[in-house]
Amino acid sequence: MALSHVFESPVPGFNFENSTRNLLLEDALGEGKSNAPKPLKTGTTIAGVVCKDGVVLGADTRATSSEVVADKMCAKIHYIAPNIYCCGAGTAADTEKTTELLSSNLTIFSMNSGRNPRVVMAANILQNMLFRYHGAIGANLILGGVDCTGSHIYRVGPYGSMDKVPYLAMGSGDLAAMGVLEDRFKPRMEQEEAKTLVRDAIRAGIMSDLGSGNNIDICVITSKGVDYIRPYQESEYKDNRQKKYKYKPGTTPVLCEKVVRLELELVHETVQKMETS
Amino acid sequence: SCDFYVSPARRSSGFRATTIMAVEFDGGVVIGADSRTTTGAYIANRVTDKLTPIHDRIFCCRSGSAADTQAIADAVSYQLGFHSIELDEPPLVQTAANLFKQMCYRYREELMAGIIVAGWDKRRGGQVYTVPMGGMLVRQPVSVGGSGSSYIYGFIDSKYKSGMTKEECLRFTADALALAMERDGSSGGVVRLAAITESGLERSVILGNQLPTFFSA
């Protein structure tokens, strides 16, 4: 297909192409009937760090739908395999389904081959799938795990690019989290130190980014097993909800009562015996 | 299919503006690259490895979209590996370069990839082939690519001479990349170098504070 491409320089910040499309759709639908569906985005801070005997992954727990918090206890660290977990940022549905698909495929592979899956294999499968969809699947993933070759963290972008780095932050709060990680990361840290570092990185994201908030989840993966701590730290801003909304009879005063009889006519009657023996 | 066509890769995460370089010498090649991957104005990875092995003695230097070049490199290394097994011989650098060219030319509208293929083979020794965006293929004794290359064409033209030794080539490449990284905002980080000869591969890294320094205004 012969297209004359005039490459525009990449515009930093938000891309509002879909807003113009939505406006056109709303006009087409008519006045007062504009109900453009709002995709649930996670607006996230996720981070991962390779420590001495394993990998520590962390995430906040807020899922936003435009400016409303849709889920205050969203789980952003997804199970892939017994030794591999994945943090997802971007469109919530995409990260959920992509990781579920990956997990199923790796389980089948494990059963077929009798091997535990390797992190690099998961990363490659993700990369191949996302590249095929040319960025239509909005999934920014941090894949972390421990396998026979060691502990690894991979970043997989929505267009199918893959990076292997010792520490990583993604999501809308990644700049704040990355600042903390760049300052305090050291190779081969102890596990407790790594957990504190990841918690502080996520907390920086929560404090500085509107799309991140609520609690912090941490997942520690070592060769001995997985410790999924949910929540690792609860938000200090809690609301007091009643959760029970039953009221005593008489709470609402009855002002007047009116009884209307319904005149019903018996039209047809059938009896069917049940076999009860 | 043009209605919802998103301009490829330019707006993708991991769009890479880069400086990459390769030089032939008698007995092999020297390749080098910076280590910066940017998403807009944010540096997504400051320690990227843009020198990718395609086969034992053949490497490629990747510039352009990270996703596209990784996918192309994976596909070509599979094809080359298969070809080499069939032939029962190490593959030629020219073969690798042509595989890149075929893929980059066929999908030229969808891809954004500028690749330099370099390596050693028994037939012609050290060779450098450049496959810029659009899918051209040409062999050059020295080749630069990426956004930072614009700033060092003059340096390359004035300083390159044929018949350099491996150490001179490494020095030349490091100097050129350092100059490009100094001037190009989209290039930076560390300098990754590799020397490929018949006997094998030597990789090295020059950290940011060890880069050669030049006059800065």
From TrEMBL, chain B:
Alphabetical list of PROSITE patterns matching this protein: PROTEASOME_BETA_1, PROTEASOME_BETA_2
GO terms under cellular component: cytoplasm; nucleus; proteasome core complex
Positions of the catalytic residues: T18 (nucleophile)
Catalysed reactions listed for this entry: Cleavage of peptide bonds with very broad specificity
Compartmental location: Cytoplasm; Nucleus
GO biological process, one term: proteolysis involved in protein catabolic process
Source superkingdom: Eukaryota
InterPro entries: Ntn_hydrolases_N, Pept_T1A_subB, Proteasome_bsu_CS, Proteasome_sua/b, Proteasome_suB-type
GO molecular function, a single term: threonine-type endopeptidase activity
Keyword vocabulary terms for this entry: Cytoplasm, Hydrolase, Immunity, Nucleus, Protease, Proteasome, Threonine protease, Zymogen
Family indicated by similarity: Belongs to the peptidase T1B family.
Functional description taken from the UniProt entry: Component of the proteasome, a multicatalytic proteinase complex which is characterized by its ability to cleave peptides with Arg, Phe, Tyr, Leu, and Glu adjacent to the leaving group at neutral or slightly basic pH. The proteasome has an ATP-dependent proteolytic activity. The proteasome is a multicatalytic proteinase complex which is characterized by its ability to cleave peptides with Arg, Phe, Tyr, Leu, and Glu adjacent to the leaving group at neutral or slightly basic pH. The proteasome has an ATP-dependent proteolytic activity. This subunit is involved in antigen processing to generate class I binding peptides.
SUBUNIT field: The 26S proteasome consists of a 20S proteasome core and two 19S regulatory subunits. The 20S proteasome core is composed of 28 subunits that are arranged in four stacked rings, resulting in a barrel-shaped structure. The two end rings are each formed by seven alpha subunits, and the two central rings are each formed by seven beta subunits. The catalytic chamber with the active sites is on the inside of the barrel. Component of the immunoproteasome, where it displaces the equivalent housekeeping subunit PSMB6. Component of the proteasome complex.
Designated name of the protein: Proteasome subunit beta
